[in-house]
From TrEMBL:
Name of the protein in question: DUF4157 domain-containing protein
Amino acid sequence: MGIKYPPAWINQHPVVPGWPVDILNTRTGIYTGSYGQVFQQESDTGIVTSAKDLEDSNQETVQLSASPNGGVILAGCNGWVFSLKPGDLQERWKTRLPCDRGGITTVFYTLRGIYAAVWGHLYRLDMADGRVEANNDLSGLGHGEVRLALTADLECLAVGIRGTALCLDPTTLDTKWKQPLRRWDVVSVVGGQDFIYAGTNGYIYALRQQDGKETARNDLPQLGSYEARMALDDERPILYAGLKGYALAMHTSDLEYIYRVQLPFRSDDLTTVLDGIKVAYFSNNGQVFELDDMGSILSSVDLRSYDSQAASLSAHNLEGEYTLAVGLAGRSFGFDLGRSFEPLDQMGRGFSRAWMPDITNMTAWRHYNPALVSGTSLLQGIESETGKLVAMTLKSRQSHYLETDGSVYVWTVAPHSGVVVRLLDEGTRWRRWSPEAVEKEAVKGYCAGMMRVTDRGFKLLFRENEAERRCVELAEWAWPLAFGVMAEGELVS
């Protein structure tokens, strides 16, 4: 892959020169927010197709968030939250947060709800109209910037504020636990499987989701007391962190280094990080770097002629074309990363795929790690030339076609996850994989079922009951909708 220079496009936005830009790369386009404004741009050309002045924003910094399908765009600015429609950026609703304060306004879209925070106050908002459904004033923690994340099981809203990490109930916003860390600086948080990772003041912590107990810590020796930005690898147990011009990768279990790399021409300023496909991206001092598993720099781009800030980074895979959007000092840039990672089948033949699901943490499947089970594959997409389904065996990392002789596969999908499939063992009955069985085993948020694959396509198989219809609805966003997979199939008993 690699970051290819020059950029495919550059866009100078009508904002104060040097003003921070937040950027989102989604399936409905690229969105940039800066100086009280939001812009929608075409992914391939960067052309601005819509612009929105955020009323009452006072031309402040804009924070963005979006739904997984790009159908809802959220903007937070100066104590206001705006829900915008893709395409024309018209307001669905806007809400003034009740604390009636300005400043950096965090917005966070999740399947558990919409969250917003400003001046040390946190709110859960109704998706339909933006009204406040719950709040937590984070008492005793002051009025700093609030950062948010959600754990893999969707049961803990992780909060970072002024040297403290918290776990809140995602629905009520009641505090489950509070863990003081170090001093009173900004705290970055990411949510993993059974753990929250927090970074502040030159330290990285692993905190047990159950009770907040510290299970591991990396003091980042010789790197000083700087802000750490973090990202979790979507497929592997790796935590990435960037600070002070260094790129770091750590094992999630013990936070021991995998690599620690000083970026060329680094500065002591902010270092941003983004998880990619088999790589990680870091930005510091007006530069963007792509690093492999061992910390080797595969490619880089120097934007210091524009500014020396750390860039906002966002990548998206649209119909097999992987692009990196970069926001820097009032500008946005688009970089062509080439075709997404192309696994090979046993004959060494590559597959051209029409789509690829987002994968955050397949090991979050509570029954077992599917990568350890023979015959379990990750559904990757549809080969454009033949229309056949392609899946990658998780143990061997080799790609293959799904059998099209009427074979029945079991499938499972979790929110923010990919689709895992396995050929149905002969003699295995429906009840083992029914939604009722999944619910009975308390795998909250997960769903499973069966599908039949033929040379004419495939169908989901389900019974006529509410639980199984909910299961299909949950799976809907993760499947290639244009392929018509939501057609009802016959029951396999």
